[in-house]
């Protein structure tokens, strides 16, 4: 008997029956990891395709890496819901899709009123062979000069607009949450005069992602 020709066609959308959700090209999804003790993989659907009978649905995905999966590992400034858009593509069976999720931009993530289970954010692209990030520099804040981790409480100085971790400026977190107005040491009234002259620094200097301290 002649084998049927393997004609595959692209689908705009597809209903994943076991989760009862419609997936479309461009959606972000959670996929079952090969090691079930690991968290679900996060992926963006680049293409959905089926065989001529509309079965055997496969998806072309572009993986998001979690910080733990990157060459440099998880760093202190990585958020718990942070993922990196990698250059690693794959073909997977649609059966491995466990659910849909949303990968927000960094900005929209920090503006969420509540972070749901299925909310993630991405601020870096990641080269899976070299371990390089794009952008390779990010703004840093506070006395500790760290990139912003959206999981950490920070308070903003009304003088210089820099953000500070309460613990880095010896303020208790509960106190920090109650503060209506905050001026950092440099901007506190006693130092105001001095500041008038040195106010130019709006911290546009950036840090290399793979170095801890800001380059001077
Ligand atoms: Zn700090
Ligand atoms: Zn200040």
From TrEMBL:
A single GO molecular function term of this UniProt record = zinc ion binding
Q: Which residues form the PHD-type domain?
A: 139-190
Which InterPro entries does UniProt cross-reference here?
BAH_dom, BAH_sf, Zinc_finger_PHD-type_CS, Znf_FYVE_PHD, Znf_PHD, Znf_PHD-finger, Znf_RING/FYVE/PHD
Basic and acidic residues bias: start-end ranges: 201-210
Query: Which stretches does the entry tag as region Disordered?
Result: 194-216
Q: Say if the entry is tagged with keyword Zinc.
A: yes
Q: What is this protein called?
A: Chromatin remodeling protein SHL-like
Species per Swiss-Prot/TrEMBL record: Salvia divinorum (Maria pastora)
Show the taxonomic lineage: Eukaryota, Viridiplantae, Streptophyta, Embryophyta, Tracheophyta
């Amino acid at each position: 008997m002649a084998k049927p020709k393997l004609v595959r066609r692209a689908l705009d959308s597809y209903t994943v029956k076991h989760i009862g959700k419609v997936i479309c090209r461009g959606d972000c999804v959670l996929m079952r990891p090969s090691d079930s003790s690991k968290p679900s993989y996060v992926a963006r659907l680049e293409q959905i395709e089926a065989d001529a009978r509309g079965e055997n649905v496969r998806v072309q995905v572009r993986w998001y890496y979690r910080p733990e999966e990157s060459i440099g590992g998880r760093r202190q400034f990585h958020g718990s819901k942070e993922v990196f858009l990698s250059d690693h593509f794959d073909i997977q069976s649609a059966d491995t899709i466990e659910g849909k999720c949303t990968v927000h931009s960094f900005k929209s993530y920090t503006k969420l009123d509540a972070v749901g289970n299925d909310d993630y954010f991405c601020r870096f692209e990641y080269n899976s062979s070299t371990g390089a990030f794009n952008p390779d520099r990010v703004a840093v804040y506070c006395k500790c000069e760290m990139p912003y981790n959206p999981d950490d409480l920070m308070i903003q100085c009304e003088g210089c607009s820099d953000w500070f971790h309460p613990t880095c400026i010896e303020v208790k977190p509960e106190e920090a949450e109650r503060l209506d107005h905050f001026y950092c040491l440099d901007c506190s009234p006693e130092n105001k005069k001095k500041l008038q002259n040195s106010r130019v620094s709006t911290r546009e200097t950036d840090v290399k992602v793979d170095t801890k301290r800001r380059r001077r």
